[in-house]
Structures are given as structure tokens and as C-alpha cells.
What we know:
With about 600 residues, this protein is of the alpha+beta class. It has 19 helices and twelve strands. The protein has helices at about 20-30, 50-65, 85-125, 125-135, 180-190, 210-240, 240-260, 280-290, 320-325, 340-350, 355-370, 380-395, 415-440, 445-450, 455-465, 475-490, 495-515, 515-540, 545-580, and strands at about 5, 10-15, 35, 45, 145-150, 160-170, 170-180, 195, 265, 270-275, 295, 310. It has a four-stranded antiparallel sheet, with helices on one face. Strands 6-7-5-8 form a four-stranded antiparallel sheet. A two-stranded antiparallel sheet has the order 1-12. Helix 16 (about 475-490) packs antiparallel against helix 17 (about 495-515).
Amino acid sequence: xxxxxxxxxxxxxxxxxxxxxxxxxxxxxxxxxxxxxxxxxxxxxxxxxxxxxxxxxxxxxxxxxxxxxxxxxxxxxxxxxxxxxxxxxxxxxxxxxxxxxxxxxxxxxxxxxxxxxxxxxxxxxxxxxxxxxxxxxxxxxxxxxxxxxxxxxxxxxxxxxxxxxxxxxxxxxxxxxxxxxxxxxxxxxxxxxxxxxxxxxxxxxxxxxxxxxxxxxxxxxxxxxxxxxxxxxxxxxxxxxxxxxxxxxxxxxxxxxxxxxxxxxxxxxxxxxxxxxxxxxxxxxxxxxxxxxxxxxxxxxxxxxxxxxxxxxxxxxxxxxxxxxxxxxxxxxxxxxxxxxxxxxxxxxxxxxxxxxxxxxxxxxxxxxxxxxxxxxxxxxxxxxxxxxxxxxxxxxxxxxxxxxxxxxxxxxxxxxxxxxxxxxxxxxxxxxxxxxxxxxxxxxxxxxxxxxxxxxxxxxxxxxxxxxxxxxxxxxxxxxxxxxxxxxxxxxxxxxxxxxxxxxxxxxxxxxxxxxxxxxxxxxxxxxxxxxxxxxxxxxxxxxxxxxxxxxxxxxxxxxxxxxxxxxxxxxxxxxxxxxxxxxxxxxxxxxxxxxxxxxx
Length: 602
């Protein structure tokens, strides 16, 4: 936890080309590495051209993926890291497909027939549909029968058709009897309506029990066929090590998608990038455990590369990083204000939403949503501060007659509340100016800040102090003189524009400070709304059920509506009155290399 954010460290790693994939997997598993290629263009790239091989694999996957096992690593068959190895693995998958095709075709046909017979068995179990279906199954050569499961309304049927619709286990069905030509016409008309045809076995007994037994006997035989076909496919999977081959291609797809064009020679590969491991202990330990050949060192980053910034805050501060990320990422040398926001945002929220019961309700909502919605974790500190300021203002469940205020009731001293919020605003803006000075010092530009902005801070502090005593007007005059003289000392040619900017900035600071009066205004609005709810509750007469119902609903309404509005105002004040003083947020975060699929479970 520090105001100065941590920056990533440049690393360079040399390994042999055959170990590149394994080394990259280990680096990705640490979660501490972002790869960035930095090489001369005449060098070869570390990865072979897998495009054609992966394209053919994708074509096979479109056809056979539903029948493939889950990819599973096999230590005896490491992922292919050469083009020849990938092509050999593809040949194995292709050979599996060629040998499995007859079994897969039979499997599809058998599954279709079994599903058809199982549905017919359910239809035969219903007394109202059994007899017509059995009659259909005993058609002569002159007549043809059709049985459809319908998904859409029926179109006009051919005139020579005997048809009946009935309800079944999976919706509405159509049974039809007609000449062969009329049945073909019916097939053509129902095809666009996604009707599903069920094939009726011929020659079934007219006795439903006997017919059902016949169908069940056929289903048993089909189940035996399915078991036999599945065993054939299992044997082919083992023979061709299909699960391991698929894991290899999963790794190759990850490699191609995530690894930049790393430089390489015929025998060696050069891995470069950034790490969040400042001392290299995590990377070195992981590589040492692997026993893979490597040489790791940490030179200065190449010129022209943008150093990633790392948010190195403890877990309890992580929710407050949301405010900073709304603007962007602090660049190297800028302040990370997360720790300041952790105190400022709940404080502003609590002042504007001061009520003990409502604050505790928000706190409870934050606890309940802790794991489901991480952003709502901010309700915990916000609700706690709201409850504390409810005690300060003497407000409990919108009532001001239950507890004595530690300070005052807002509606009884509105000017004091507004003036206090302006003082808070001055402290916030002054803190932003100090952080601006600090970031200039970190960048070695402290002298520039003193000449161009130091006078503004002195004048601003003097103006705030003059609200208490006229003696501070001397500081205002001194600061203005400093703000005028500083740019003239730095560069006489640009002194005019610099002086104009300084005066404009000072006026903006005054306006922005006054805008913090909205904090007090929202506190007053909250107190006024609470008084209105209590007044409506009392208008119901006495303290009966109506009183407590109105009070309950009113409090819930305030928690939801006013909680959202106050949250928006808090965010606005933090972003546009505080961050704007010192934070450019044009840096870039570290984007760790994602581990290959299945790495966590292996």
C-alpha cells in the first residue's frame, strides 16, 4: 500500500527452441508475466507457422467435437512444439476420424432409431392414442401412413388425406393416412414448419401390450448396439491417444493466440516482456522446479517501451481501485490515490447520507453482495460511514427524536453544514494540489512545479484561511506574486500565457471549492426528506400499523433512490474535483499472460 504505484520490471529469458512452449506455460502459470516481443526484424520468429495445421484441425473439430473426449495431458506425449510434431499429431487425429467414421455413422443412426421407438412407446402407453397408431402400422400397399410431432400450426392438408391431431408426451402430434403421392405432398408442406417425423414399424400387433413389448425388445437390442459402438470408439481413442492429442492442439491454439512474435535462431528462443515479480524470485523458483534450460536476467527496458503499472494494494483496498480505473491507470511516476480514496469516498458518502439505520442496511447489502458483485463491496465502508454520520446528525430510521446528535441536526443549522462542507472541499482540493507536487518531485520536475504552481497553492491556502481571519490575505498576495514571478523566471517569452493560466486556474479552484457545498446541500436534502417521511407517517394517525408501514417504505425508498444519487455525487466529486488536480491516468496496466487451458488442473 503506497501512493507511488509499482511498475513492472523488464525481463529477458534465453531457452532452447524445443523447450519454448513448456517455458511459456510455466511463466503463464505464475500470473506475473506479460510478453512483449523486442527484436530486430531480420531474426526468425520463435513459433512455426501452424496456420494450415490448425485450420485442418478446426475443420475436423467442427465435424467430430461432439464425439471427442475431454482433452487430457499425457506426460508420455507432451504438446507438439514443432511443425513436424503438430503434423504428426494431426495425422493421428485424422486416422482416428477415418477409422471412427463407420462407428459414428452407425451410432447416429442407432440413437435416432432408439429415440424414435422410445417416443412411440410413450404414445402407446396412452389408451386414447394406442389403437390409431397400431392401425397405422398395418397399412397396405395402396395406403401410406405418416406420424409427425408438430411445432407449428398445420397448413391446409391435401384433400385425399385422412388425418387426426392429438396431444402426446412431447406436444401435439399428427397421424395421417393417404395414398403415397398425397403423403409425399404432406412431407413437402410440413418440412418448412420443422415438423418431426416419427417412423412407424410395420406389422405391429393390434394388442397395445404386445406392441409395446415388441418395441421394448427392439430398444434393448439397440442399447446393446450402442454399448458395442461406444466400446469401439473407446478403443480407438486409446489406440490413437486422442485425449492427449486434443490437449496438444488446445495448447497450440493458446500458444498461437497469446504469444507475440518472439525472436529465435535455429536452436534458441528469446523470451522478453514484463513481470510483476520485482525481484525475480517467483519466476526463478518456477523455472528451477521445472529443470528446463534457461538463462533469466533483468536489463533496463528498451527505449520507447511503455512500462506497465501494477496496482499493489492489499485486498481490503481493491474495491476502491474502481474509482481510479474509471479514469484509467496511473502512469509511472504518478500517484495511485486508492488509499486516499478509501478514506475520502466513504466520508463524502456518509455526510450526504447520514442515518444510522439506513447506513447499517447499506452495510448489510454490501456484505450479502460481497462475492456476487465485487463493486457493491463499496457499500460496506459507505454504509458504515453513513451510520456514523447518522449518529453525528442524530438521525435513526429517518427520525431525529430517538437519539441525540453528537454535533447538530442539519435542518437546525443549515449554514453551518454548508460552510463545513466547503471547508472539507478546500481540504480535498488542497490535498490534490499536494499530490500534484509530489508526482512532479517523483519525476524530477519539482523545480518546475515550484515556479509554475507553487504560488497557486500558497494563494489558495491563503484564500481558505481568509474565511477565518483577514491575516491570511497576506498569503493570498504573496501567492499571486509568486504565481506571476515564477513563469517569468522560467521563461520570459511564455510568461504572459503562463500568468493567464495561473489566474484562470486559481479562479477554477475557487469555483470548485464552492461546488463542495453540494455535500452539505445533500445532507440537508436527506434530512428534509426524512422529515417529510415522518410527517406523512404521522398523518396516518397515531403510531399504529399505518405509521410503521409508511416509515418502513419511506426508509427503503430513501436507501434505494437516495443511495444511488449520493453514490453518483460521491463518484463525481472524487473524479472531477480531486483526481483532476494531479492524475492524468494515461498509463497502461500489466496484462498477465493467461495460462493454457487445463493448466490449473494439472
